[in-house]
């Protein structure tokens, strides 16, 4: 994902990923930058407060992000995975 840095140093994040993650105006997001040995940097949203639980319908393990987590449709998941290496 590409982000634009404004003249005053603010990151401008596209609306779609913000909506998918459930962020809205005024939300505070902490970002940690990790530098790899090859000189690249990766940002990580923190805290990543998911927990592994058993799905009540399938019995399979799933990650639960709580009642306020956004609901993803199968179309959204398919679209996100289309760019996955």
Quick overview:
With 85 residues, the protein is an alpha+beta fold. The strands form three sheets. Strands 1-2 form a two-stranded antiparallel sheet. A two-stranded antiparallel sheet has the order 3-4. A two-stranded antiparallel ribbon has the order 5-6. The protein contains two helices and six strands; from the N terminus they run ββαββββα.
Structure description:
The longest helix has 9 residues. A hairpin with a 5-residue loop joins strand 3 and strand 4. The protein is 19% helix and 28% strand. It is extended, with a radius of gyration of 16 Å. The mean pLDDT is 76. The chain has 85 residues and is an alpha+beta fold. It has one domain.
Radius of gyration: 16 Å
Structural class: alpha+beta
- Beta-strand residue percentage: 25-35%
Low-confidence stretches: none
Succession of helices and strands: EEHEEEEH
- Give the strand tally: 6
Fraction of residues in helix = 10-25%
